[in-house]
Structure formats: structure tokens, C-alpha cells
Amino acid sequence: MMRRVVAGAVFVSLILMSAWVIAGVRGGKATPEPGRTAAGKTAEPQALPRMVDLGKTWCIPCKQMVAVLREAELRYKGRAVIEFIDLDKKPEAAREYKIMMIPTQIFFTADGREFERHVGYLPFQEVEKVFTRMGVERSH
User: Fold this and answer.
1) Does the pTM of the predicted model rise above 0.85?
2) Could you tell me the end-to-end alpha-carbon distance of the chain, in angstroms, rounded to an integer?
3) What are the contacts of 38-46 at 24+ separation with CB within 8 A?
4) Please, what CATH class does the domain formed by 2-134 belong to?
5) CB atoms within 10 A of CB 17
6) Where are the domains of the chain?
7) What burial class does residue 9 get, using C-beta atoms within 10 Å of its C-beta: 0-12 exposed, 13-18 middle, 19+ buried?
8) Following CA atoms 45, 104, 60, 3 in sequence, which dihedral angle do they give, to the nearest 10 degrees?
9) Which among 57, 40, 33 is positioned nearest to 106, based on CA atoms?
10) Distance (Å, rounded) from C-alpha 138 to C-alpha 78?
11) Tens of pLDDT along 19-52?
């Protein structure tokens, strides 16, 4: 019985979050724009592939992504730019990147083209697989 209550609460939460995000997204262009790295530093424009994670600091799957972003930032230092965009602080990014649910991770090639998009928690092993498909090697 308790599992059903918890599952129902999670489902309702996802529906409400989706409705809130969708309400803020009406059209727009998915043009990548420099954001912040997982460490909170401003990312400088570079000719490197990018992983952009868009979410909110209070969202549970978004919180789970923090460790993944830190690990990716360490493993791909100098090879890829890892960014987090807080949609509470920068709500226009939801429209800009065409975000329907959070968290959303978008991988961009060095020339700025979207390579792959994922919605939800993405384990580090899956991040590695995407970078491998992109031809990005770990720095160490």
C-alpha cells in the first residue's frame, strides 16, 4: 500500500514539474549559450564539446546529477566543458534549450551542434558512453 502512495506521489510530482516547465517553454531556439560549470565558474567559449545539464537545485534527480557533473568535470578536464544551468536563476534557458522536463542533459559537438539529449538522471557511465560516441577521450 505504501509503495502505491509513494509511486503516486512521485508520478504527481513529475506531472506538476513537467506542467510548470512546459508552461515556460513556448517556442524558442535551442542555441547553446555559455553557462556555468559544475563548480560554479563561468564557462568561457571554447572549441570543445559540451555537456549542458539543465535543472533546478531542489529537484531530486537534479541533485543526484551534481556528483555526475563533478566526476565528468574531473575526467574530461581540458577535453570537454561541463555546465549546469539552474532554471530557477535562468528561466529563459528552458525556452532557449527547448526543455520539457528536468533534469535534461544536452551534449554539443565542438562546433555547437546538438549531438544527443537525455531527460532524467544520467549515470556517469552513460555520460562516458556519449562522450565516447562523440570521440571525446578522458583526460585521465
Assistant:
1) no
2) 48
3) 38/66, 38/69, 38/70, 38/72, 38/73, 38/82, 38/83, 38/84, 39/70, 39/73, 43/81, 43/83, 46/81
4) alpha beta
5) 15
6) 2-134
7) exposed
8) -170
9) 33
10) 9
11) 444 434 333 334 344 455 544 555 555 589 999 9
